[in-house]
Amino acid sequence: MKNRHFLLVIFCLLSIRGPLTSTSAGTGIPPNGLILSTEDYSIFEDSSTPIVPVMKPTNAGTLQRCDYNACREKQTPCEVLSTSLGCLCPGFTLHNQRPEPPSLSSVSWNGSAVVVWWCAPNSYVTSYVVTVEGGEKQTLRANQRRTALSQIDHKAEVCVVAVNDAGDSARSCMEYQPSSNSLLLTVGLIGGTLGLLLLILLAVLLCRRRRQKKEEARHV
């Protein structure tokens, strides 16, 4: 009975060992169709080399807008800020396209001159041209946002145009009405004239007074 069990164990071992030996030796393919690639072991050969993760760019929505105000004077152009700081600019037209018109914000009298303020368009600009209807014309640098005009004593249209190599933009205009300006000018002229007449009158009175004293002195 023991011999039968022993023979049964030997037969089982031989039946198991036989297929494994013949499969691996004859074809070089492991059992159960499992294929092992030698390239997979390269990951474990040098464990001293760290695996560096690849950083993907962050979502564009997390980027901040550039500190650029289209109405601020003498500031760094937005495209320069974007290149150096990686911030976002509003959509700009290219240098080979005519610029969009600037936004004329105010034309007002400040007590000594007519001041014109405007905001830059979202375009490539090389200069600005400010014109007064039937009168003055000024060409200004691209980083300027205001200018002072000479005396405008009549109702006139004031316009600003953006310029680049491709041409001029449409005009951005505002009508200037010198109501308060003319009033101040009229009051100033009247006051100055009255003051001048008063000085002349005082000078005449002093001269007469001196003559009278001289004549009185002669008679005495």
From TrEMBL:
Boundaries of every Epidermal growth factor receptor-like transmembrane-juxtamembrane segment domain copy: 187-214
Domain of life of the source: Eukaryota
Signal sequence bounds: 1-22
Ranges that cross the membrane: 183-206
GO molecular function, one term: ATP binding
SUPFAM superfamilies per the UniProt record, alphabetical: Fibronectin type III
Keywords: ATP-binding, Membrane, Nucleotide-binding, Phosphoprotein, Signal, Transmembrane, Transmembrane helix
Protein name as it appears in the record: Epidermal growth factor receptor-like transmembrane-juxtamembrane segment domain-containing protein
Taxonomic lineage from the root: Eukaryota, Metazoa, Chordata, Craniata, Vertebrata
